[in-house]
Inverse folding.
């Protein structure tokens, strides 16, 4: 509510404006999908599938194949819609964005909720490094638009040619340190040893693990070098994080996270990367794919922690004193709002002192007071609540004065 809700809206509106400038089209995806969609996309070893899914209770004779889950992430639903529309074969190169709530069963804490909002983008039919760089440039544009400090971390996970050697090296490393692994890593090591790197318990052990960049084949090495070159050319600051693998099984080549020190332990505010092969795995054509998702509430926390006040301050509180002034005040309020000003009309049943206190609590820049005497002379009393000064202004000039006050205000 209030400033928090405005911060969330500001993140969403800035993100929407930026991605549409880059040619993305909106896609609305449902809140419920078949469970098997997430099992096939996120991977059986992912925390999403193993621990965090909300299943929908169905009638007793419902087939297990028709089991439905509440949406824990956006990418699988976007791909499913893309394939069902036949775009993977008729017009494969597409750019989509989506937004809305996701649900995961997790332990709630600051920046992590069981119901949370994401704003995400997906690009299909582009396997080149330039689109990976463009996504990161978009994120940097959002950082600049919100005027916040963020750190972009990138890594390359290799592809089907070089990733197996990296996987085997991690598997060998994990087995050699078996007694030091947590229970989750014991269960996941053979199925997906890359998860060792993003374990929140075995952090120190992961620091000494093999690095994916040391195992890249030449095409993957060139791809990653091109991403770095394009980011540097666009003056986007980034760091290479060799432990970054992402939590889902479908990522390959470029992977990235954007983190902030302003939101506590849940520091990742944007995450994404390349998932070539996922469209084919879900029944579509063999196409490349890449994308990212913004944790909207987390980004809003960064915005608030940075001391940036989201817009929403009223330009004026409108006060009518006396029955005869009420109609004129109502008409003035409508005129001011048509000019794009934010004006709140206060209750005419309270005294002037109480109404002025209310205007102050609202954070209004000004109070516009119309009494019977002012009405008869065609003026208002315009009180600057920041400067605690008051002057008489002609009724027809109120809008111009309020616009000037808004334009000169530092917030």
């Amino acid at each position: 509510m209030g400033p928090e809700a405005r911060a969330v809206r500001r993140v969403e509106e800035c993100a929407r404006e930026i991605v549409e400038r880059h040619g993305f089209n909106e896609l609305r995806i449902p809140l419920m999908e078949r469970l098997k969609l997430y099992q096939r996309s996120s991977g059986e070893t992912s925390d999403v599938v193993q621990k965090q899914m909300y299943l929908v209770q169905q009638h007793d004779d419902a087939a297990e194949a028709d089991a439905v889950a509440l949406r824990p992430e956006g990418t699988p639903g976007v791909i499913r819609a893309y394939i069902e529309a036949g775009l993977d074969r008729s017009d494969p190169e597409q750019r989509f964005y989506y937004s809305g709530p996701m649900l995961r069963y997790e332990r709630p804490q600051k920046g992590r909720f069981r119901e949370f909002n994401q704003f995400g983008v997906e690009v299909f039919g582009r396997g080149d490094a330039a689109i990976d760089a463009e996504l990161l440039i978009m994120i940097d544009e959002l950082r600049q638009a919100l005027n916040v400090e963020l750190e972009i971390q990138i890594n390359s996970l290799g592809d089907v040619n070089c990733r197996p050697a990296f996987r085997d090296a991690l598997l060998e490393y994990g087995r050699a340190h078996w007694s030091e692994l947590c229970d989750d890593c014991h269960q996941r090591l053979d199925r997906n040893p890359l998860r060792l790197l993003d374990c929140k318990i075995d952090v120190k052990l992961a620091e000494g693990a093999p690095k994916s960049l040391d195992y890249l084949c030449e095409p993957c090495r060139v791809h990653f070098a091109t991403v770095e070159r394009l980011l540097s050319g666009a003056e986007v600051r980034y760091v290479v994080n060799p432990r970054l693998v992402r939590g889902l099984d479908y990522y390959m080549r470029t992977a990235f996270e954007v983190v902030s020190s302003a939101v506590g332990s849940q520091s990742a505010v944007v995450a994404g990367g390349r998932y070539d092969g996922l469209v084919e795995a879900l029944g579509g054509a063999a196409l490349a794919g890449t994308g990212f998702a913004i944790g909207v509430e987390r980004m809003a926390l960064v915005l608030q922690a940075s001391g940036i006040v989201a817009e929403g301050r009223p330009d004026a509180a409108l006060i009518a004193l006396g029955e005869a002034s009420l109609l004129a005040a109502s008409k003035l309020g409508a005129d001011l709002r048509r000019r794009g000003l934010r004006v709140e009309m206060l209750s005419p049943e309270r005294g002037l002192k109480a109404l002025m206190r209310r205007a102050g609590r609202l954070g209004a820049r000004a109070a516009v007071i119309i009494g019977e005497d002012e009405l008869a002379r065609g003026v208002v009393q315009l009180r600057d609540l920041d400067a605690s000064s008051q002057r008489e202004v002609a009724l027809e000039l109120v809008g111009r004065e309020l616009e000037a006050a808004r334009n000169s205000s530092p917030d």
Notes: The mean pLDDT is 87. The CA atoms of residues 366 and 384 lie 5 Å apart. The chain has two domains: 2-162+216-305, 316-408.
